[in-house]
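Checklist before submission:
- one chain only
- standard amino acids only
- sequence pasted in full

Submission:
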Amino acid sequence: MQYQWITGLILILSLLFLLGSAFLLIKRGWFVAWLKGTLGLVLLVAALFFAALSLNFYSYKQLMEESSVATVSFKRLSQQRYQATVAEASGREQTFDIQGDLWQLDARFMKWNGLLAGMGFTPGYKLDRIQGRYLSLEQERAESRTVYSLAEPEIGFDLWTYVYNGKLTSGSWIPWLDAKYGSATFLPMADGGIFSVTASNTGLVARAVNQRAEVAIEAWN
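Returned file contents:
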């Protein structure tokens, strides 16, 4: 619920700016009207910004300690080629054609710092991508790698990328937000193998669910 009410609060600010811009832009006059028009446009831009910001926050899921985020299962199609099915905890399911011997799931994390963290604000996460790789270094360099995005396209701007690159945290208006990248350890793909992926404050952890996945891990190790 935490990210829902944060989204709602930001969306309310967006609507207030939008109403303010509409009120000022409708008024008539000359110089005063020009000033109001300029202010109205500024408020309109602010409204769009906060609307995009609210959508950014809404796309993240609240992380309560260690949470199950996805189940990944594999079906062998040919030599070093598998069909991977990613079933997210939300019920969303996607299928990908992955080449290689190993697979890895990546996620983006938003973390709260300072006072907000002390108040109990918990991190949020969003699955980012799934990728494959080859065991052979020669193949890894020569063959094309398969990488697929799991996230929905960002609307307006990508808040996580700006924070991660330090473009916003270098300023003073958002010192309470931090962006991290988490990845599960590369594990082998196996025909009929099923893996569970959980998220915690330290990142992602993938574990074997059935015997075929366990046998593949033991053979790989």
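Reviewer check: The first helix runs from residue 2 to 26.
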